[in-house]
From TrEMBL:
GO terms for biological process: acyl-CoA metabolic process; fatty acid metabolic process. Residues 20-151 form the Acyl-CoA thioester hydrolase/bile acid-CoA amino acid N-acetyltransferase domain. It comes from Scomber scombrus (Atlantic mackerel). This is Peroxisomal succinyl-coenzyme A thioesterase-like. The active site is at 242 (charge relay system), 334 (charge relay system), 369 (charge relay system). GO terms for molecular function: fatty acyl-CoA hydrolase activity. Belongs to the C/M/P thioester hydrolase family. Residues 214-424 form the BAAT/Acyl-CoA thioester hydrolase C-terminal domain. Coiled coil: none annotated.
Length: 437
């Protein structure tokens, strides 16, 4: 290494930002034509370690700009400004099936970005980097409030945006894994929406009584959000992923209490017994358990459980009853739910009913089931514990890393635009201005 290499400068701007905010990684003051490896390392709250790396060659001015320059190899190739986040994977030797999810949203995700001499592929912790920077990515912007909710028997958390309000509201429902998952709601609040994250499969009331919640539980959550002094009670939407989509569509179509301004359904289906409770919907899914498949890696594929899409109107939500704008986000390589076939059937139902003008479908080739906020690493298969039987399986979610990552970025941008248009009104830009740290 020549003397100039000792003074390598590495900068990341902004070094502190929201998880969906792009950053620029710049390496300066190296010799022209130098082979360099840019490496990212993250230690999760569960103490598992994740890393990614990419190979670059400095230009004539001795600079590498990750946002503009080609990665020649590593965990991603080509010009990928945020590849250092979305290509993160467990370090070699980790146990299989890990999934990275933020639990404590009041602390940042910390990533150590370093630059090494040469094109390295392993042994990073045993080497001394030329330079390193600690980067913080947050789900909660400054001023966002996190307020646990227990009234009405709920297990929930509401995230309130910075400022006096009142703000439009969102009910945020995750899928079949249960638990109170907060990070998406925290990020939505950082963009100006009062978001209530709701545990409906493993809430305290279910753990105490052994009984799953009924539809009134969701109506209670809606009322709590609607009546909050910092929420615009007439401007509430609902966002569901996977099984959360089933609840979102049921409430939108049939509830006399839940009156939504819009709904977003990610990787889900309208197929369910129309009059069913949560327990009955889950039970219906399992009536087709013999359709469960396993691939050659013994990863479970559940998408066939709801196929073929039934023709019996008692077994799917009547989409003709929907009276608010609906966005469907579909990964076409979803191995967990038949999201693509369901979206097509919902579209046909709404066309026949004359309300298809309310429907927007975002469909992504080679994207899988777990379509999350942008720059979240892609997980093709992870360990999954079923709520009803509590057994661990290796679930195949699907998707290929690059197109899935593109889908996450594109769908999140369009999700925020959809929410702003339908909850704020397209001329109101207040929600767009609160996201930066």
């Amino acid at each position: 290494m020549d003397r100039k290499q000792c003074c390598v400068k590495l900068s990341v701007e902004p070094s502190r930002g929201l998880v969906d905010e792009k950053f620029t990684v710049l390496v300066q003051n190296v010799s022209p034509g130098s082979q360099l490896t840019v490496h990212a390392l993250h230690r999760c709250e569960d103490q598992y370690t994740w890393e990614t790396f990419a190979h670059y060659v400095s230009n004539a001015s001795g600079t590498v700009n990750v946002s503009e320059d080609l990665s020649l190899g590593g965990t991603y190739s080509g010009v990928e400004p945020m590849g250092l986040l979305w290509s993160l994977g467990p370090v070699p030797g980790s146990k299989p099936g890990l999934r990275m999810r933020k639990v404590n949203v009041q602390t940042p995700m910390e990533i150590r970005i370093s630059v090494y001499q040469g094109h390295q592929t392993e042994g990073f912790t045993a080497q001394v980097p030329l330079a390193g920077v600690l980067v913080e990515r947050w789900y909660m912007a400054p001023g966002v409030q996190r307020v646990p909710i227990t009234e009405g028997g709920l297990t929930a958390t509401i995230f309130l945006p910075s400022g006096p309000g009142p703000f439009p509201g969102l009910l945020d429902l995750w899928g079949g894994g249960g638990k109170l998952v907060e990070y998406r709601s925290a990020l939505l609040a950082s963009h100006g929406f009062a978001s209530l994250a709701l545990d409906y499969l493993t809430p305290k009331i279910t753990l105490e009584t052994g009984k799953m919640v009924d539809n009134t539980y969701f109506e209670t959550a809606y009322r709590v959000l609607q009546q909050h002094p910092q929420v615009l009670g007439s401007r509430i939407g609902m966002l569901g992923l996977s099984f959360g989509t089933s609840i979102t569509l049921k409430m939108a179509a049939y509830s006399e209490v839940v009156k939504l301004r819009c709904a977003i359904c990610v990787s889900g289906s309208h197929v369910q017994p129309v009059d069913g409770s949560v327990a009955e919907i889950l039970s219906y899914f399992h009536t087709n358990a013999e359709k469960t498949r396993f691939n050659e890696e013994n990863q479970v594929i559940w998408r066939d459980l709801l196929l073929p899409i039934p023709t019996d109107p008692a077994l799917k939500v009547d989409m003709g009853r929907i009276q608010c704008p609906v966005m469907l986000v579909v990964g076409e390589d979803d191995h967990n739910w038949p999201a693509k076939e369901s979206a097509q059937d919902m579209k046909e139902m709404m066309e026949r009913a004359g309300n298809s003008h309310l429907l927007t479908i975002l469909s992504y080739p080679n994207a899988g089931h777990l379509i999350e906020p942008p720059y979240t690493p892609h997980f093709r298969a992870t360990v999954f514990k079923t709520v009803n039987q509590r057994q661990k399986v290796m679930a195949l979610w699907g998707g290929d890393t690059v197109p899935h990552s593109r889908a996450q970025e594109d769908s999140w941008m369009k999700t925020l635009a959809f929410l702003r248009e339908n909850l704020y009104g397209s001329t109101n830009t207040a929600a767009a201005s609160v996201s930066h740290l």
